[in-house]
Structure formats: structure tokens, C-alpha cells
UniProtKB/TrEMBL annotation:
Record has Signal as a keyword: no
Source species: Cupriavidus metallidurans (strain ATCC 43123 / DSM 2839 / NBRC 102507 / CH34)
UniProt keyword annotation of Protein transport present: no
Protein name: 3-keto-5-aminohexanoate cleavage protein
Record key words, sorted: Metal-binding, Transferase, Zinc
Amino acid sequence: MQFLDDSLHPENMDKVVITVAPYGPEWMPEDFPEDIPVTMEEQIQKAVDCYNAGATVLHLHVRELDGKGSKRLSKFNELIAGVRAAVPDMIIQVGGSISFAPENEGQAATWLSDDTRHMLADLDPKPDQVTVAINTTQMNIMELLYPEYLEGTSLSNPAYIQAYREMTVPAGPGWVEEHLRRLSASGIQPHFQLTGIHAMETLERMVRAGAYKGPLNLTWIGIGGGFDGPNPFNFFNFIHRAPDGCTLTAESLLKNVLPFNMMAMAMGMHPRCGIEDTIIDQHGNRMTSVQQIEQCVRVAKELGREVASGKEAREIYRIGTWYDSVDETLAAHGMLPNRKSGQKNLPLRKAA
């Protein structure tokens, strides 16, 4: 991304799009009973409460009545329909992992099969987005979930610790290309969850090869354990390398969430919050998803940035937009065109 002398002035920035992840599939209801919804009615109401607080993107997972993450697509259909009816302007973003929750103490936390994950393109009603990872990566969320914050929670269970330490994100090139093809055919926008520069470079190569022709909505994930660590220089390097025409959201864990959200909002980008990312505030006290949204709204106002409405967030994310060619896709993101046959040196943009 390029920054001009006045790029940090709020009047030259998009309105803030707040993403909330309020379903926290790695936690069990007893870990935070005041803020982990279990019944379908409670899960729908949680979306309504988050929207009313200022969040316009809902990162969606679903629970069964026993509190475990649901692996039934029918439950996703039910929650999507309920949220769509209750808050129609909210952007519904289905977590592409479907569920992290182990079925029992001895079972590893695994994603569903590739074929089942492809079925996210067949959800009915359709979500606005499905999150898509690029490149198979270790996802050891335990690396930065410090023991003092886990004491007394389900994640202090040794079997769960082992399961989450060994979790991986399967996202090889064949699977990603097929997944993008199916999502695009269904009119569902991918939201790319990127683990670092290497993932963004792979995504750019796929765009240049024509595997995806649509808006680039990106989330940088600084959670360690195989992803970028929560080092500001990792984040700044990612920002520096990101295409001008993309949107960029920050995501981290626990006490790192607020600092990265503040940095993102100060630079014209967007925050993500919710109990999937942290269940504590900077003092170690429990903090609900709604309270985290309210905090983002306060910070945004102090920075002089307005918070986007649901309709404005859809315009910023370009929901429903697709491009007809690789050249159009590259131009929409301010990316250099592909080199033409016989062209030497760098392909340069020419002034009109």
C-alpha cells in the first residue's frame, strides 16, 4: 500500500469496517457462559447485539446444543437464515474451517474433508463471504495462549492442548483453486486469511494467472504458531506489500488484539475483535464481544474515523462485484499489469 502525505488524515480513509468473531469455537460454554451462545435463538441474538454495537461483518461458526462446534452444514444454513432475517445488512462471513472443536478428549482438532469444505459453496441461503486460507500451514494456537490465561478453562485440558498444538490449515494449491472456482460460481466472495507475505505472494500469483477475478479483502493474522507472530514489523511489512486496492483487517490473540486494532485503524485499515480472538481485556478481565466492539468504536471516534453502516461496509468490501479479466482485476487493485510478450524491464503504468 502507498501512503501520501495526507494518508493518515481520517477524511482520506474509508469508514471503519468492524469484523466480530463472537462464537469462539475454541472455547466451551463453561469458559465464558455470559458470552457464549448455545441455542440457535441465542446465536442469532448474539449477531443482532454485535450489529447494534457497531460490527458490520459477522465471522460465523455454529454450536450444537451440547456446546461443541457444529459440523453440520444444515446448522449453518439455519443460523445464516436467522441472521439474514434479523440483520439483513450485516455481512455474513462463514469461517472456512467450519469448526475447530474436538469431538472428545482424545480426538485431534481437525478440519473436515476437502470435499465437505467445498460444500460451503452450496450453503443456502448463501453467505456473503467464506474465509479462505492460502498454503497449508501449521496453526498451533497454543503457542501464544499463555497458561495463566487458560487456567480453569477447557483449553487447560492436556488432550485439548495437544490437539490444538498439532492443528494444521490444509490449503494446497489444487484445493484453493477448486474452492475459489466453486465460491465464485455461487456468487460467494472469498475473504482471504493470510499468514504472512508468503501467502500474499501466492495469492498474487493466482490472481495474475486468472484463478480469481474479484475484490481482494484480506486479513493479516498475527497469532504465531505457524502464522506471522504479533510483531508490528511483520504487520507493517505486510501493509507495505499489500495491493493499494485491497481492504486489510488485522487479527491477533488475547492482549495483542487491541494494539493491532488500534494500529490498523490509525492507518486507515480495519479491526477484528470478538471472543474467538480474545476473552480478556488488557487487564486480564473477561471482555465480551459486544464490549470489544464498543471499544473499537471508541478508538475509531478518537481517531476521527466514522464507523461504516452495513450498507457502507458492503460497498467498501465490494460485495457482489466480479471482474471479467485478469487485466481488469489487476487494475482494480492498483497492481502492475502482467508483462506482455517481448516486453522488457518492468511493465509501467502510463499517465492518461
